[in-house]
């Protein structure tokens, strides 16, 4: 039985600002892609909000809806893009440098892309070692920098006639920094901002600024920000949704398809060796051991959670999991990943699986940014706050409310996302029980 919920989602009236700290390969591929779709010259492939269909009601009803027809999402022509970067290039110039999209396509989008000019970044070389830029803010302490970001948000909304905004982190991966005492509460964090605490990173300052302005925040990198207790407390206090972390795009996307499959069949795993070559600016930043450490944490966490060695000591008690990313400029954004998986089956007999994924990093990531922005705006209009676990589908390391463990299995993540959309719209939740001869979910009514 489906009890009616009391969620009342306001309609997406007016314009929505999608603000991205970082206007590099991923962000500009998103902006260009949305402009191309609006012009009718390309399809939004890879975007669940634009192309996804959801089953509704009983199996016998044969009822499906486009996701965007079921829930009131902002339309593409209601979106205005903005961002921050430590390089002053506009989005057309930055996209040309990123070399993800063909020149010819970019030329047709030159006019709207040239209009997107970055605001000055909050940047600190201690957290990203491989970049040197001049387009950055200065202030006497980190609180002043946060105030400047807040002012940027307000000015952007006013100057572009926007109703509301969402922020999705698309800037570089910072050096891995575990939470300290300063991240324990909003009070200690604000004190840290005023005292220029060195453990507060730029991405945490953006997160704080967004939440203080009631702007939903999604973390697309492995930077530690929405995981912090102070940010979770602030998101509740400001009634604003947050989610993260690290877009699940290439190798990890496949891991969360293959690994649950092996576990569900009770096949053992002795080792999983993953390596990548990548030649874009993200690859260059990740060539620094501190930034790579952040990626390693999100990339390796996936398998240890799926192959829970406490639950399955005979099958997964002794896995050797290695992840490497090698910066290799000739490939640019076209990443190549190799996985070698040593598995064992019935009576312990060994087998191997090889995966060779020749992907395009930003082509995989851009639709995820769009979906996250639209769903976070939806969540905000639905009055949601705190961590949005139903968006785990998009992340390598989904943030959950402690002490819950994240769910990594892509198909379970999709079920959760779909059921949340059904819940929002008072549609029946689907549990796939369907015991046909026992009168359960027979679709008789
Ligand atoms: N492409 C993917 O498949 C994928 C998957 C998961 C995560 N990510 C993450 O997405 C992020 C963006 O990736 P990308 O390929 O666009 O990288 P990129 O290097 O092309 O772009 C990042 C941009 O952020 C800017 N920047 C760095 N620090 C900043 C700051 N403090 N404020 C504002 N701007 C700042 C840089 O100048 C650069 O222009 C990275 O953190 C990456 O790890 C990407």
What are the salient characteristics of this protein?
13 strands; 7-stranded parallel sheet; alpha/beta; 445 residues; Rossmann fold; single chain; 4-stranded mixed sheet; binds nicotinamide-adenine-dinucleotide; 37% helix; Dihydrodipicolinate Reductase, domain 2
Gross geometry: globular
Write down the oligomeric state: single chain
Amount of helix:
25-40%
The unreliable regions are none
Q: Quote the distance from N terminus to C terminus.
A: 12 Å
- SS-derived structural category: alpha/beta
Bound molecules: nicotinamide-adenine-dinucleotide
Highest CATH level, the class of the largest domain: Alpha Beta
The gyration radius over C-alpha positions equals 22 Å
Largest sheet: 7 strands, parallel
- The mean pLDDT is 93
How many domain regions?
2
Q: Would you tell me which CATH topology of the largest domain applies?
A: Rossmann fold
Order of helices and strands: EHHEEHEHHHEHEHHEHEHEHHHEEEHEH
CATH architecture of the largest domain: 3-Layer(aba) Sandwich
Please give the order of strands in the largest beta sheet: 5-4-1-6-7-8-13
List the helices and strands and how they pair.
Layout: E1 15-21, H1 25-38, H2 48-51, E2 53-56, E3 63-66, H3 67-70, E4 79-85, H4 91-98, H5 103-108, H6 110-114, E5 119-120, H7 142-159, E6 162-169, H8 186-194, H9 202-212, E7 217-219, H10 229-237, E8 241-244, H11 251-264, E9 268-278, H12 281-286, H13 289-306, H14 313-316, E10 320-327, E11 336-344, E12 350-358, H15 361-381, E13 386-387, H16 410-424
Parallel strand pairs: 1-4, 1-6, 4-5, 6-7, 7-8, 8-13, 9-10
Antiparallel strand pairs: 2-3, 9-11, 11-12
Helix pairs in contact: 1-4, 1-15, 7-8, 7-9, 8-10, 11-13
The structure holds nicotinamide-adenine-dinucleotide.
């Amino acid at each position: 039985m489906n009890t009616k919920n009391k969620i009342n989602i306001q309609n997406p009236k007016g314009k929505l600002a999608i603000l991205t700290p970082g206007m590099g390969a991923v962000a500009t591929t998103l902006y260009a892609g949305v402009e191309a779709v609006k012009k009718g010259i390309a399809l939004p492939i890879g975007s669940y909000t634009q192309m996804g269909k959801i089953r509704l009601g009983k199996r016998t009803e044969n009822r499906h809806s486009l996701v965007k027809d079921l829930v009131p999402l902002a339309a593409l022509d209601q979106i205005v893009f903005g961002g921050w970067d430590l390089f002053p290039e506009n989005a057309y110039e930055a996209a040309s440098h990123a070399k993800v999209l063909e020149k010819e396509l970019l030329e047709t989008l030159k006019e709207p892309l040239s209009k997107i000019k970055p605001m000055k970044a909050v940047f600190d070389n201690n957290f990203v070692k491989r970049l040197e830029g001049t387009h950055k803010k200065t202030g006497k302490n980190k609180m002043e920098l946060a105030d400047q970001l807040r002012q940027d948000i307000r000015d952007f909304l006013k100057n572009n006639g926007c109703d509301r905004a969402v922020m999705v982190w698309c800037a570089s991966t910072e050096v891995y920094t575990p939470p300290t005492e300063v991240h324990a509460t909003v009070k200690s964090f604000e004190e840290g901002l005023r005292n220029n605490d060195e453990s507060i990173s730029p991405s945490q300052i953006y997160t704080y600024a967004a939440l203080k302005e009631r702007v939903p925040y999604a973390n697309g990198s492995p930077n530690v920000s929405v995981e912090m207790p102070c940010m979770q407390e602030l998101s509740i206090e400001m009634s604003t949704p947050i989610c993260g972390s690290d877009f699940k795009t290439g190798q990890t996307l496949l891991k969360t398809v293959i690994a649950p499959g092996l576990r569900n069949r009770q096949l053992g795993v002795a080792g999983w060796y993953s390596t990548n070559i990548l030649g874009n600016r993200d690859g260059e930043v990740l060539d620094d051991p501190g930034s790579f450490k952040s990626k390693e944490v999100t990339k390796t966490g996936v398998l240890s959670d799926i192959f829970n060695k406490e639950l399955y000591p005979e099958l997964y008690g002794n896995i050797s999991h290695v992840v490497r990313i090698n910066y290799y400029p000739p490939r640019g954004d076209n990443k190549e990943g190799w996985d070698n998986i040593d598995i064992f089956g019935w009576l312990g007999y060994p087998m191997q699986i090889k995966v060779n994924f020749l992907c395009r990093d930003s082509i995989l990531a851009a639709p995820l940014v769009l979906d996250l922005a639209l769903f976070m705006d939806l969540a905000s209009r639905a009055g949601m706050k705190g961590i949005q676990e139903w968006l785990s589908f998009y992340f390598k390391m989904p943030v959950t409310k402690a002490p819950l463990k994240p769910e990594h299995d892509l198909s379970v993540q999709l079920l959760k996302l779909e059921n949340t959309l059904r819940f929002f719209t008072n549609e029946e939740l689907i549990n796939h029980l369907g015991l046909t001869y026992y009168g359960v979910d027979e679709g008789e009514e």
